[in-house]
Design brief:
With 156 residues, this protein is an alpha+beta fold. The protein has helices spanning 22-29, 87-94, 104-117, 123-129, 141-155, and strands at residues 2-7, 10-15, 48-51, 54-57, 70-72. 33% of the residues lie in helices and 15% in strands. Strands 2-1-5-3-4 form a five-stranded mixed β-sheet, with helices on one face. The radius of gyration is 15 Å and the shape is globular.
Length: 156
């Protein structure tokens, strides 16, 4: 089946099978390997992408369901022209919100979805937005600190 959708700002058309997941299409067909396949059951958040601005587990999303939609992956978060990192990415680095990095793409995408809607989230709102992202390294405090710092950076 033909799938036409936008990925990181680029219109994309390709043939997919009706049972192909978005995670597999992104990773195997489009070479966008930033979304990690962790649990393959939608529990860990490592494969999170934005579909029309909302966070989704790409391992559970059928690619064909993205017909006509805008998909943003971690590769599309930094400025596409200059390569400058998004404030969320900068803050995660500056505030030690990442260690091994496996969960980082999903954390960035979930955080971006939150900050795109709420530029002044409370720590509780940040924690709620990150609820579906499992990190085994940081203990989450530094991630919440990072998202809070990114919110402040984005206000300037």
């Amino acid at each position: 089946k033909s799938l036409k959708f936008t990925v990181n700002g680029a219109e994309t058309v390709l043939e997919v099978s009706v049972n192909e997941t978005l995670a597999n299409v992104l990773r195997e067909r489009l070479d966008l390997t930033g979304a990690k396949i962790g649990c393959d059951m939608g529990e860990c958040g490592a494969c999170t992408v934005l579909i029309d601005g909302e966070p989704f587990a790409s391992c559970l999303t059928l690619a064909i369901d993205c017909e006509g939609k805008e998909v943003t992956t971690i590769e599309g978060v930094a400025d596409q022209k200059t390569g400058e990192l998004h404030p969320i990415q900068k803050a995660l680095i500056e505030h030690h919100g990442l260690q091994c990095g496996f969960c980082t793409p999903g954390v960035v995408m979930s955080s971006k979805a939150l900050l795109d809607k709420n530029q002044n989230p409370s720590r509780l709102e940040i924690r709620e937005a990150l609820n579906g992202n499992i990190c085994r390294c940081t203990g989450y405090v530094s991630i919440v600190d990072s998202v809070s710092a990114a919110a402040e950076m984005m206000k300037k």
